[in-house]
């Protein structure tokens, strides 16, 4: 936090279109990010002077003292769920010390959440005037409580976490007291009720509120799965209203999922936080990821299905009534297993692997077979047993291709790492070592995997010139079962890279146009399931067009022909010289990859042996 004064008056926009003036020469408490933004907009010279924040709160820590006739200033800038959790111990303190004065600070957009609360003496929007801190007897600074990696933040439910922060023995507090509160604005609620009425949503089939945008991509439910979910609910005769801040209304429209008959874009009706409260209040059930909607629904007693991955569902919705959490589990989830580091998949790929795992079919079954019957809404049950997300009971295979003397020599080096990985991920291991397809190129023998799918649910194929790092995570958990996954075949591993455009053109010219304009994967590491048997259509197609590859372009063509869902893997899952992992660099960085592919790294067998020794040494060390 920063404490500073300004050389000139500054005007800030407020909720409802008003303005707030930060007066020159007065001191304000700012978040460091906002401090930087002020300087970017008004110039560095706008800052007149600074004071150390820590010195302003010396002697103001709260450790259970009597608060009667005392003033406490509590603040946290953002996060609706976090602020709702923060308010619970504040209310508890107000009950214990009725004559206390509670000042609460947050971003102005959360005024509707905090200001109506009778336990709050005054709401203060950020940036906070320093006088509120100086004139208060105690100051509680909640910033970073949830975000900072700690034993408590990774094991306690968020409502317990905030009770603990104010010194309450959270284990002794009844779960019924761990339900947040919100206050419905009657005028706004009437307007929303009339909107529902006008659209025919107050009678008939259930109305499900759906939210999928969060404040960070790592918690977002993927748009393609969201679209599928809306469609499947519509087929069940269930209507949906898509909720969120008004700023996401255009994004929702771009998805093309709202026909305004069975699915409605209600983000455009969300003018304020009060509007969001009331929209959720008129829904039968809420479905969404780890974001504001779940906490609001919990406060209102609205049943919910929470979609989780980065954070376990029990740390957020454990105390809510009629709440089911669906957790997408991968070997890298929950996120706090790797500390405060950001999810590398969401940073580099713009996606969250664990959030791809909650399957739309499972969500619909959970709604129809569990949630709706629990509130007396029948007639929507689906007579299909509920499936587990992960780990699932599936028969797995790791397979490689080794035909010819050189391939057998490479297999001698690679076998131990491949067999070890297969055991680690509970998969069988198999070597394709006989020519059955008998095509022009030996690589076409990969197409024998079509028949292997008769006996296995999922297969991970590895070229024989590959070593698997002992610490390689389980790709069967990272990749959803209905996706084909591989690393894009380019130096930057970007799926839209056009470096293989000539292959895209020549294959379609010979085999037929399938609307394939971009995207090309390297087939050296390839994971797929029974659903993707069409990948191995027409093994002799390669003989009908020119290509610099033996099998790769046919596999890519078949992916596009069948419109299979594709998940681009991070380049560490197929580490080649082309994408930055070399056994020939000084020093070699090959072992930085999870799966080490030695394509075109001659002398290949010597380099494989050299790196294999390093891998064994690194792992033993």
Which labels suit this protein?
621 residues; alpha/beta; Rossmann fold; 3 domains; four-stranded antiparallel sheet; 20 helices; 31% helix; glycosyltransferase; Glyco_trans_8; Nucleotide-diphossugar_trans
Please give the structural blueprint:
Layout lengths: L1 E5 L3 E4 L5 E4 L5 E3 L1 H11 L4 E5 L1 H4 L14 E5 L4 H17 L4 E6 L4 H4 L7 E4 L2 E2 H5 L3 E4 L16 H8 L20 H13 L8 E4 L12 H13 L3 E4 L6 H7 L7 E3 L7 H9 L3 E5 L2 H9 L3 E5 L5 H4 L5 E5 L16 H6 L10 H15 L21 E6 L3 H20 L2 E6 L16 H4 L5 E5 L3 E3 L6 H4 L4 E4 L14 H11 L13 E5 L22 H11 L2 E4 L26 E3 L6 H17 L1
Parallel strand pairs: 6-7, 6-10, 7-8, 11-12, 11-14, 12-13, 14-15, 15-16, 17-18, 17-19, 21-23
Antiparallel strand pairs: 1-4, 1-5, 2-3, 4-9, 19-22, 20-24
Helix pairs in contact: 3-6, 7-10, 8-14, 10-11, 15-20
Rg: 29 Å
Tally of helical runs: 20
Determine the N-to-C terminus distance.
42 Å
Overall 3D form:
globular
Helical content (DSSP H or I, runs of 4+): 25-40%
CATH architecture of the largest domain: Alpha-Beta Complex
Low-confidence stretches: 384-392
CATH class of the largest domain: Alpha Beta
What is the third-level CATH name, the topology of the largest domain? Spore Coat Polysaccharide Biosynthesis Protein SpsA, Chain A
Portion in strands: 15-25%
Across the major sheet, the strand order is 13-12-11-14-15-16
User: What's the structural domain tally?
Assistant: 3
Total count of strands: 24
The fourth-level CATH homologous superfamily of the largest domain is Spore Coat Polysaccharide Biosynthesis Protein SpsA, Chain A
The SS-based structural class is: alpha/beta
Biggest sheet descriptor: 6 strands, parallel
Please state the average pLDDT score.
Answer: 89
Keywords: Glycosyltransferase, Transferase
InterPro entries: Glyco_trans_8 (IPR002495), Glyco_trans_9 (IPR002201), LPS_LOS_Heptosyltrfase (IPR051199), Nucleotide-diphossugar_trans (IPR029044)
Protein name: Putative glycosyltransferase
GO biological process, one term: lipopolysaccharide core region biosynthetic process
């Amino acid at each position: 936090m920063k404490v500073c004064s300004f050389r000139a008056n500054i005007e800030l926009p407020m909720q409802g279109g008003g303005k707030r003036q930060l007066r020159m020469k007065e001191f304000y408490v700012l978040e460091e990010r906002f401090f930087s933004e002020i300087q970017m907009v008004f110039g560095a010279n706008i800052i007149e002077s600074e004071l150390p924040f820590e010195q302003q709160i010396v002697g103001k820590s709260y450790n259970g003292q009597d608060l009667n006739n005392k003033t406490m200033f509590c603040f946290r800038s953002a996060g609706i769920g976090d602020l709702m959790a923060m308010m619970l111990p504040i209310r508890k303190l107000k009950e214990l010390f009725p004559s206390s004065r509670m000042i609460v600070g947050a971003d102005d957009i959360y005024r509707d959440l905090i200001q109506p609360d009778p336990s709050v003496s005054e709401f203060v929007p950020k940036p906070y005037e320093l006088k509120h801190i100086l004139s208060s007897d105690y100051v509680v600074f909640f910033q970073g409580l949830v975000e900072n990696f700690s034993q408590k933040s990774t094991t306690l439910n968020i409502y317990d976490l905030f009770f603990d922060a104010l010194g309450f023995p959270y284990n002794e507090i009844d779960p019924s007291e761990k339900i947040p509160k919100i206050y419905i604005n009657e005028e706004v609620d009437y307007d929303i009720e009339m909107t529902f009425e006008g659209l025919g949503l107050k009678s008939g089939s259930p109305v499900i509120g759906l939210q999928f945008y969060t404040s960070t991509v790592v918690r977002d439910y993927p748009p393609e799965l969201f679209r599928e979910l809306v469609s499947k609910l519509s087929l069940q005769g269930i209507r949906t209203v898509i909720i969120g801040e008004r700023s996401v209304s255009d994004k929702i429209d771009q998805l093309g999922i709202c026909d305004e008959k069975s699915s409605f874009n209600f983000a455009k009706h969300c003018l304020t936080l009060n509007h969001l409260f009331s929209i959720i209040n008129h829904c039968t059930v809420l479905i969404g990821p780890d974001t504001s909607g779940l906490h609001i629904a919990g406060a209102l007693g609205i049943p919910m299905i929470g979609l989780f991955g980065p954070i376990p569902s029990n740390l957020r919705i454990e105390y809510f009534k009629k709440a089911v959490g669906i957790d997408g589990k991968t070997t890298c989830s929950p996120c706090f297993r790797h500390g405060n580091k950001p999810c590398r998949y969401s940073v580099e790929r713009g996606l969250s692997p664990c959030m791809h795992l909650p399957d739309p079919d499972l969500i619909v079954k959970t709604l129809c077979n569990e949630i709706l019957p629990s509130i007396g809404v029948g007639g929507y049950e689906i007579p299909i047993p509920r499936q587990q997300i992960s780990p699932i009971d599936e028969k797995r295979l790791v397979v490689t291709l080794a035909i010819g003397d050189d391939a057998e020599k490479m297999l001698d080096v690679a076998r131990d790492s491949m067999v070890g990985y297969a055991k680690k991920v509970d998969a069988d291991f198999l070597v394709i070592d006989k020519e059955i397809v008998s095509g022009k190129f030996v690589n076409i023998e990969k197409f024998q995997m079509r028949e292997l799918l008769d006996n296995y649910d999922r297969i991970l194929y590895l070229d024989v010139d590959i070593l698997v790092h002992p610490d390689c995570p389980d790709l069967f958990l990272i990749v959803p079962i209905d996706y084909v996954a591989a690393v894009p075949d380019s130096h930057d591993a970007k799926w839209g890279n056009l470096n293989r455009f000539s292959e895209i053109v020549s294959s379609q010219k010979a085999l037929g146009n399938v609307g394939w304009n971009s995207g090309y994967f390297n087939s050296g590491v390839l994971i797929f399931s029974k659903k993707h048997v069409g990948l191995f259509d027409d093994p002799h197609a390669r003989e009908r067009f020119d290509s610099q590859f033996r099998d790769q372009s046919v596999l890519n063509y078949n992916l596009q022909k069948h419109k299979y869902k594709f998940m681009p893997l991070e380049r560490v899952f197929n580490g080649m010289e082309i994408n930055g992992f070399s056994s020939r660099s000084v020093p070699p960085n090959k072992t930085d990859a999870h799966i080490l592919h030695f394509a075109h790294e001659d002398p290949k067998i010597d380099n494989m042996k050299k790196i294999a020794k390093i891998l064994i040494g690194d792992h033993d060390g």
